[in-house]
Specification:
globular, 11 helices, 12 strands, Rossmann fold, binds iron/sulfur cluster, four-stranded antiparallel sheet
């Protein structure tokens, strides 16, 4: 009898997947302490850490937020975890507005939204065993069962889920007896003890050896696929976002500047800042397109990237992030942008939609861009 062919698997488009957590126009400003220098200022200065950010986390999807240090990425993770109160904007969990800073409402929120921190040693108490950490998490989230046999089973399941097997080998160890990768797996198991819908992973591999980073990313991907989780992946490494994330958002100086599916954003970056980020990441393909290299024709993306990098290297201000206390007017990237135009200094660029779901907050994509606009800005003038 002929075998029945397997039905083809249907890939659900990104935008059709169920939305779990959504941030609308989220902002966070931190007040600066009064000092002799700012005593005379009438208004107390604030750090504009995050301004008007929109993020949608969907089931079965990894969303990466990429940017340099100090761009506000980690503040976003803490705002979504409700560890910081937002200055403005709204959070919606499964379509319902949430504001839960403490108490029972906060615990209920944490059951749905869990966070994984960058430092797996700092996030585990060195005086307690793995059994203690996981038991505590199971009890807080009421998943420890009624008997010690139930608890034992739940602990073994958690360790098995993060591939720390056999569980007996790890369960009574202290954090210092484990490697960095094993500690991060315990931190992930602790987050999974709540059976959450959303994982907020704040640079989860940046403190680990390069050799074990891939294992942790593969574990998170496996959890996403098996449990249909929504994952926020915060990173400064755009190459890992391409490998791991379905959607990538690029952040600069507290604002989102580009977004789209990861392949498009990393292969055809539209925003000059994304082009610089990609230009600074090591890529063997780009080496192959340098003059005199043996193979490969230059791609449009590689052209754009090299042009942006070369132009920016000529600029004295390249590499200097702006002050977030007095952010530049107009486009916040204009003091460093090799393509800055006159209007970039005064007008904040809105989000312009590009083909394939990509978007960029950059005046280069304005419909009314004309030759006068495209005149390069005088970099000698102050912003
Ligand atoms: Fe550069 Fe202007 Fe685009 Fe900002 S809006 S990235 S300054 S071209």
């Amino acid at each position: 009898m002929p075998e029945t062919p397997e039905p083809p698997t249907v890939e659900v488009p990104l935008t059709d997947r169920e939305v779990v957590l959504e941030a609308r126009d989220l902002s966070k400003h931190f007040a600066v302490r009064r000092t002799l220098r700012n005593l005379a200022d009438r208004d107390r200065p604030v750090v504009h850490a995050v301004d008007a950010v929109n993020i949608t986390l969907r089931r079965g999807t990894v969303t990466a937020v990429v940017g340099e240090s100090g761009s506000g990425k980690s503040t976003i993770a803490r705002l979504l975890a409700q560890l910081y109160p937002a200055t403005g904007g709204q959070l919606l969990l499964s379509g319902k507005p949430v504001r839960a800073a403490r108490g029972r409402a906060f615990r209920a929120y944490c059951r749905q939204v869990q966070m994984i921190f960058q430092d797996p040693f700092g996030s585990l108490n060195p005086t307690h065993t793995i059994r203690y950490h996981l038991t505590r998490a199971l009890r807080i989230h009421k998943r420890a069962g009624k008997t010690s046999a139930d608890l034992d089973k739940a602990l073994k399941e958690l360790l098995g889920r993060v591939h720390l097997t056999p569980p007996e080998r790890y369960i009574d160890s202290f954090p210092h007896e484990l490697s960095g990768g094993q500690r991060q797996r315990v931190a992930i198991a602790r987050a999974m003890a709540a059976d959450p819908q959303v994982l907020l992973a704040d640079e989860p591999v940046s403190m680990l050896d390069v050799s074990i980073r891939l294992g942790i990313l593969n574990l998170l991907r496996d959890l996403k696929e098996r449990l249909n989780l929504a994952i926020l992946y915060i990173t400064h490494d755009i190459a890992s976002a391409r490998y791991f994330a379905d959607e990538t958002l690029v952040m600069y100086a507290g604002r989102m500047v580009e977004g789209g599916d990861s392949e498009t954003v990393t292969q055809r970056p539209a925003h000059p800042y994304t082009q610089l980020l990609i230009g600074s990441a090591p890529d063997p393909d780009r080496i192959a397109v340098t003059p005199g290299a043996p193979a490969g024709a230059p791609t449009a993306a590689a052209d754009a990237v090299s042009e942006a990098v070369v132009a920016s290297e000529d600029d004295d201000k390249a590499g200097e992030p702006p002050s977030l206390i007095r952010p530049p007017a107009g486009c916040r990237f204009h003091p460093r942008c090799p393509k800055a135009m006159e209007r970039c200094r005064t007008e904040l660029p809105p989000r312009f939609d590009l083909p394939g779901g990509q978007w960029a907050a950059c005046w280069l994509y304005a419909d009314d861009l004309d030759k006068a606009d495209a005149r390069p800005v005088d970099k000698g003038a102050t912003a």
